[in-house]
UniProtKB/TrEMBL annotation, chains A, B:
It comes from Muricoccus nepalensis. GO terms for molecular function: DNA-binding transcription factor activity; transcription cis-regulatory region binding. Keywords: DNA-binding, Transcription, Transcription regulation. Gene3D superfamilies: 3.40.50.2300, lambda repressor-like DNA-binding domains. Pfam families: LacI, Peripla_BP_3. Residues 9-65 form the HTH lacI-type domain. This is LacI family transcriptional regulator. Transmembrane segments: none annotated.
DNA sequence: TTGAAAGCGATACCAC
DNA sequence: GTGGTATCGCTTTCAA
């Protein structure tokens, strides 16, 4: 390898052009130190910088200051459409503060996620947004803690004292369950998310608590956790439930992708939605209003989630603020996939 | 601001641990220069590096070598689901070469895109993937050229000699038109993409050429270009066409989002799909198989597109290869949104 | 085969 | 208020 070609326009060039020392030019261009420079000199520097199209070199700045104006994000499956609006909102909020978002997708492998944290740390990211974290002893989160890297969880909680922006998952499932109950359903099964994820656990508990509060039974075997948040996994879990739960009239799913899988399972079983069976999702990801039938689901505020997480992280980066958890309120979006149960099946009916 | 806290484990530390000079450690850790180091010393260095969990500091490396192992991507609207699989594939291919992908979303504003190029250049990205480029005199492309930054266009062509990975847009529209004609349609209108984009132009030309080749007329006003690739813009354009084109039996859309908007327009006009009117899309973005009716569309090979673009860019980065355009073959995916025209309306029927 | 030293570009101290 | 200078961590040329 050869010696690098010199950057076109650097601070020194700007300083020469303005007839000042590089130190002075640096001070004049930094809003925080500008007051240390005489007005005319500062003016000449800024003019020269603008004229030459000067931009501080990020690598040099990063090396010297230890910060990169880069924030990393870890998501499990960028293909999951629910992340698009969340990340877009986070990126926009970060951009307002001069930060760029570096998205990495380690999939569902926690060790790989921890490896990515190390790589991002080597790139000197100022902080991380984690959408991958599992509930206990997550390696990626541990890697952040070990390095003193500010981290904020998105749509996941990671235990006591870990900053996070989440939707109220228990309340969300309660909305879905009460909606189904109000339609007359009594035999409701739950397609759950992966147990090690906070969303999987909380939504399952939310389902069970809401059922109990309504005096509805949840027989053993009426809850089936999918192995991952995916359409195929949702179909597998829903198929099991359809075979196992006599007289089930509704499937409350922990996630929209699982609900799409439930659609597949119902279709294969010859059950029309919502005539024969109702299905609800969770997240209100893009396009679920266009499927047939349009999915009744629990809307989490994607944009707000991304924005709040970004702001929380920036607060931690700038002020080292401790920053607890933010819990956002979900809402129910009633569409076409839920309706009254078939006559005679709403109560403890026969098979 | 204070002086930064020293990085935990740096090259010097590794060298000390191995009992060699930092230069030697550097050589021992770089595969390209390892042969210059005596085997036992090299072994000690690698062992020490592994034991301490050493990672070279990206900022320092970047500053010294001029390369960052970072590649930028510019997309117009990260929320557009078609980009998710493309970017995921590109990121995976780049990761194999040690590069990370930095995604930026300037929306539809070309000036803003050029601004982002400057910002990414200041971050010393090794190259750029551009999905935003318009057909002529694109500012972002010009900004890359001016800086000598390797760039590859994705799903867009930018004129002679600009490296690009695209689907054969003319052929794609021809697939859709021939499919509709084979079903018996003769009165087909086109919901076009924005004219300044290569996809908008090529797909429109592909539509017109295919219609001409089949001997089907395209009366004036039967082509309407949407102002942007979006659902709302598609609805607006499709509504115009429905009002303006007597006896139209099919809408061939330049893009899936436009087709979703066409669904909205047809619904508002009380036209059932495909009974009263057929609709086709282009791209086969995620989830369009789940909408009602499932969308007949032209599939572009997303993953291959992302992968090929990444490889092309890496070739340019490493070898300065000139790298022409890659044209991929689209395929037709027949689903439920296309069917035979209503009886008596397939040929030059009355209103 | 290895050590010494320069330098990428910016910033933060210390003098003046 | 301004200039000088050391320094962040690494690579690479030059000398030995």
């Amino acid at each position: 390898m050869t010696t690098p070609t010199p950057r076109s326009v650097n601070l020194r060039r700007v300083a020469d052009e303005a007839g000042v020392h590089p130190s002075t030019a640096s001070r004049a261009l930094n809003p925080a130190t500008r007051h240390l420079v005489a007005a005319p000199a500062a003016g000449r520097v800024q003019e020269a910088a603008a004229r030459l199209g000067y931009r501080p070199d990020a690598a040099a700045m990063s090396l010297r200051t230890g910060r990169s104006r880069l924030v990393g994000a870890l998501v499990p499956g960028i293909a999951n459409p629910v992340f698009a609006p969340i990340l877009a909102a986070a990126a926009a909020a970060l951009a307002e503060d001069g930060h760029a978002l570096l998205v990495a997708d380690p999939g569902d492998d926690p060790e790989r996620a921890a490896e990515f944290v190390a790589e991002l740390a080597a790139r000197r990211v100022d902080g991380l947004l984690l959408a991958t974290v599992s509930l206990r002893d997550d390696p990626a989160l541990a890697a952040c803690l070990a390095r003193g890297l500010p981290a904020v969880l998105i749509n996941r909680s990671g235990g006591e004292g870990v900053p996070a922006v989440v939707s109220d998952d228990r309340a969300g499932m309660a909305l879905a369950v009460r909606h189904l109950a109000a339609l007359g359903h009594r035999r409701i099964a739950h397609v759950g998310g992966p147990a090690p994820l906070s969303t999987g656990l909380q939504r399952r508990e939310g389902f069970e608590e809401a059922m109990a509060a309504l005096g509805l039974p949840v027989p053993p075997g009426w809850v089936e956790a999918a192995t991952a948040y995916g359409r195929a996994e949702g179909e597998a879990a829903a198929s099991l439930l359809l075979a196992r739960c006599p007289g089930v009239t509704a499937l409350a799913c922990a996630n929209d992708l699982l609900a799409l899988g439930a659609y597949d399972a119902c279709r294969r079983a010859g059950l029309r939605i919502p005539a024969a069976i109702s299905v609800t999702g969770h997240n209100d990801m893009p396009l679920v209003d266009m499927i047939e039938p349009p999915l009744t689901t629990v809307r989490i505020p994607h944009e707000e989630m991304g924005r709040r997480a970004a702001r929380l992280l920036l607060d931690r980066i700038h002020q080292g603020a401790p920053a607890g958890a933010v819990v956002l309120a979900p809402t129910l979006v009633e569409r076409g996939s839920s309706g009254p149960p078939r006559a005679g099946e709403g109560d403890a009916g026969s098979l």
